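Illustration 12: Putative HTH-type transcriptional regulator YraN.
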Amino acid sequence: MNLQDWKMLAALYKTENITQAAHQLFLSQPTLTSRIQKLEIHYGVPLILRKRRGITFTPEGEELAHHAKRMLLEQRKMEEKLINMQEEVQGTLRVGVSNFFAANKMPKLLQRFKEKYPEVECQVVTGWSSDMHRLLLNHDVHISFIKGNYAWKEKKALLYEEEICVASPWDFAWDEIPKLPRVDYYTDEHMRILLDDWWHQNYIEQPNITIHVNQVETCKEMVVHGLGYAIVANLVVRPHPELFIKPITDPSGEPLKRQTWMYYQEDTLQMNIVRAFVDFVQTLDVKAL
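Figure caption equivalent — predicted structure in token form:
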């Protein structure tokens, strides 16, 4: 097998679909099918089984796909090591970014970093904090910006804290909250548990959720337009002084806060590009960006 075969198997394993894998690899579907057949002939075993929608790997094919993923990782490490030996800050930096950070912090941060290191190319993946944590564990990214504390024995740096608050288009008393219309949104498990625990510590009734949206930014817009209140991190609604904002607290009266961290692995600091980025971020007031 060669590098192209490894990429083909990895794409097939990820998508479980020949058409989608071919699209990712900029190949025609017949070309991809032909390459699969050649591998099957070479190894003397079937590698995939076709289903009504997509494909599934045979045990032999799955073993070969895992091997391909390992080889791609080693290939990437070797390429990064060669670039690093040039002692210049260049190459590709792979970063995982939680959704809110991606929309509100990352563009300014990357712009400033690129101004300082113009030879750097950045590959950014966005999603839930739990997904960014998983990408880092799998070595798919060098660095992840994550909200909340996740199991991690490697390096991490606290970037900022923000209070969790109720944001409402109208003034309100705390005992009125269960009756008021609430705008809810999908969030990661850590934030969901925090909000649910706070609610059940303070109210017997269920919240009156009238609108449920995918993203916190959409939720904020619903609140700004008078459609209900929401419980969000303070930075989400900071640009809207017209809203009524009150922090939520734990049983001892302390404001509940959410932390944003930069997670990375210590051995990646041997790479000039990663070390430069980590050092650069730590010189910034990220919360103020």
